[in-house]
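Retro notes
What went well: the complex prediction finally ran end to end.
Inputs used:
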Amino acid sequence: MDLRSRSEDTLQVVSVHDSRIDAAVAIEFKEAMRSATDGGNDTVVLDLSEVQFIDSSGLGAIVAAMKQMGQSRKLALAGLTPTVEKVFRLTRMDSVFPVFPTLDGAITKLKT
Amino acid sequence: MKVLSMTRTTLLPVFSILVESGQLAVRDALRQLLDGLKPLDLDVEEAGTVELVMAEALNNIVEHAYPEGDTSGPIRISCEHARDGLHLTVVDAGRAMPDGRTPVGAAADLDVDFCDMPEGGFGWFLIKDLAKDVTYQRHDMENHLRMRVAVALS
């Protein structure tokens, strides 16, 4: 699982450089997110613009990533492609995460 | 009189896919399924729906019909294109569904505390939300799951 992390002012941006977050990589994704976000910024933006497909296991792994960051921090999602957006919308998980159409939009809105 | 019609006249011939259950079976089967559907030129929305429904059905088989510790076995997919969409059949020779039926697939309860936010249980909800006419039968020691995805209509 190729995750790349960088700082953007007060934000941390974690970009997923893989086209799928599915059952085959869900556990690996969750662990990679733990390493990427441990002790990091309060607000993390997960850039999903390269992810073309996510299944329910991948969705569960993103929820797990949010929970392991803790309730005092925020995990926002940006750059959802059509099928990824569909999974979040149908399961109403788009009401649990702040969701932004683009990474630039997320950075503009979230940086303080 | 000239009849203007937007309907699709050609139906894709039936095709089938056979994979051995395991870690890479789902990605392999999905790639073969989407390759088989290429002549239909589905848009990203339709292709995403087909892929999602089949991914969830296959993930369930790999996880529950052939769980770790059991010997793996075959998963057969057949895809029949009809005027009301794609009729997908998935057959495996693994363990039966508990109670002989598919889970209800209720939407997850999100009105819960942060630490209780659900990390699973979305699979059958997505299948039943996106597919029509979902039926499950156990016969001849096999699980037969049938689903219709209403895309490529004519």
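What we learned: Chain B has one domain: 15-149.
What to try next: split runs per interface for comparison.
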